[in-house]
Design brief:
Strand order of the largest sheet: 1-2
Helix content: 55-70%
Length: 63
């Protein structure tokens, strides 16, 4: 059974992982509520999001 929602979410997670990786590599500064958010959590977020996205896409292909 194909699950189109899981495909969309998996691709979205991989897109977010790429965005976080780009933020980490380009060292883009983010300020939220007057506080500067460090860059290093973006590397962690990229790994976590990519892992979840790949896991979801693999799970989708199981019979």
């Amino acid at each position: 059974m194909k699950r189109p929602a899981s495909l969309v979410v998996g691709i979205f997670l991989l897109f977010l992982a790429c965005a976080q990786l780009c933020r980490f590599l380009l060292k883009v500064q983010v300020v939220a509520a007057g506080l500067e958010v460090p860059v290093w959590p973006s590397a962690v977020a990229a790994v976590v999001l990519a892992t979840l996205g790949i896991w979801l896409l693999k799970e989708r292909n199981k019979p």
